Recover the amino acids of this structure.
């Protein structure tokens, strides 16, 4: 198969393998850390979780660090990206260890959120750096395949990390702190793996003097304006459409995630531990959907074009999600998780490819940071909308139909633009 042949060639590239290893370890640690947070915040027996509580937690963890995104882009276009991967993962290892101590000490929730917020804030630099660095280790012809393998493999690593976290919880009761320490260990391994790459390998090509914090703050607005002007130029309008479509689809993903959380916590299980296990199964099946997207997307995007593939993904979601989601029972929900993973990752691979192929390297870090901000604001906004619409047990026909209509609108818009 051509895809298998190209994949073998890609994995022979030493620099790509090293960058991929950093991503796998880093996102594996993310999966461990996220399961620990979900278990502590949502599935603790002593906590009576509501959609509003979930939305509030997402807002606390995501919205403030979304503000870091533009600054991450400005600095990523000045700092060596290899150093960002090294020191970012070292810092996350330290902060995750602090979070474990706070969990074990039963501190007030706000202090726990502050620590978790710091971990996710650093995560912006690491993930943006990984995306911006990818074109530096593969050629343009294999960029679609690299975008299929690398982010999808990272998502699968996060899923496996989540599975490890579930395993630790099964072996030891009240082990959220131990799970977080496992995540800290993986962050440390990711930092050490970054040392296998030369400092200047991942760019950017020009290395101006590292700005002070005050200088970075002052120049952020100007630099972002330049990046947005670069993105808005006619040759990059396809990238703008892809970014907007992916942002809206991310909104749908966030709303459905809150629905699944509430179903697992209350409607489909009466025991918090059983509900957490069901949620883990749903995430594992969704991870299989991500893997399927990595296999299908290079072929589909090559035949249809990335923009048309986004339209196909949105159309599939609009047709399948209501059929699978409206019964509000376990088996259709799990099938829906697979479909959601497939269409979301398939559209993201196509969007990443369009953006990376359309923008210059000197702007890539800033634009991917804006990309991340759009993702997170849409995700938190979806959680807020879901909190207003969901009943306590998570069964909401209105929310499922609303998400279906949004997917249909994205499909219609992308089809119209691509057929011009």
């Amino acid at each position: 198969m051509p895809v298998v042949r190209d994949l073998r060639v890609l994995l022979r590239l030493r620099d790509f393998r090293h960058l991929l290893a950093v991503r796998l370890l880093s996102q594996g640690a993310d999966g461990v850390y996220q399961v620990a947070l979900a278990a502590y915040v949502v599935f603790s027996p002593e906590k009576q979780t509501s959609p509003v509580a979930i939305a509030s937690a997402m807002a606390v963890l995501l919205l403030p660090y979304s503000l870091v995104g533009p600054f991450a882009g400005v600095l990523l276009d000045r700092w060596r990206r290899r150093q960002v991967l090294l020191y970012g993962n070292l810092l996350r290892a330290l902060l995750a260890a602090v979070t474990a101590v706070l969990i074990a000490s039963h501190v007030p929730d706000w202090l726990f959120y502050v620590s978790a917020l710091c971990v996710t804030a650093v995560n912006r630099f690491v993930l943006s750096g990984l995306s911006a660095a990818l074109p530096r280790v593969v050629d343009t012809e294999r960029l679609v395949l690299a975008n299929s393998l690398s982010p999808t493999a990272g998502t699968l690593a996060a899923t496996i990390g989540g599975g490890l976290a579930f395993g630790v919880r099964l072996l030891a009761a009240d082990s959220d702190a131990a799970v977080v320490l496992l995540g800290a260990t993986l962050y440390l391994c990711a930092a050490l793996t970054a040392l296998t790459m030369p400092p200047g390998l991942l760019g950017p090509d020009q290395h101006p003097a590292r700005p002070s914090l005050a200088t970075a703050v002052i120049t952020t607005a100007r630099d972002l304006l330049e990046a947005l002007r670069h993105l808005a130029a006619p040759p990059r309008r396809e990238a703008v459409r892809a970014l907007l479509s992916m942002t809206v689809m991310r909104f749908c993903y966030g709303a459905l995630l809150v629905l699944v959380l509430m179903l697992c916590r209350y409607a489909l299980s009466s025991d918090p531990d059983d509900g957490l296990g069901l949620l883990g199964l749903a995430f594992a099946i969704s991870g299989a959907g991500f893997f399927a997207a990595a296999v299908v997307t290079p072929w589909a995007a090559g035949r249809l074009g990335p923009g048309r593939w986004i339209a196909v993904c949105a159309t599939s979601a609009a047709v399948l999600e209501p059929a699978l989601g409206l019964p509000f029972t376990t088996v259709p929900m799990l099938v829906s998780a697979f479909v959601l993973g497939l269409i979301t990752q398939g559209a993201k691979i196509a969007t990443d490819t369009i953006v990376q192929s359309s923008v210059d390297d000197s702007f890539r870090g800033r634009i991917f940071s804006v990309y991340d901000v759009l993702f997170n604001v849409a995700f938190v906004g979806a959680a807020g909308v879901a909190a207003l619409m969901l009943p306590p047990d998570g069964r909401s026909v209105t929310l499922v139909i609303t998400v279906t209509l949004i997917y249909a609108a994205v499909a219609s818009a992308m089809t119209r633009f691509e057929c011009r």
Q: What stands out?
A: The mean pLDDT is 81.
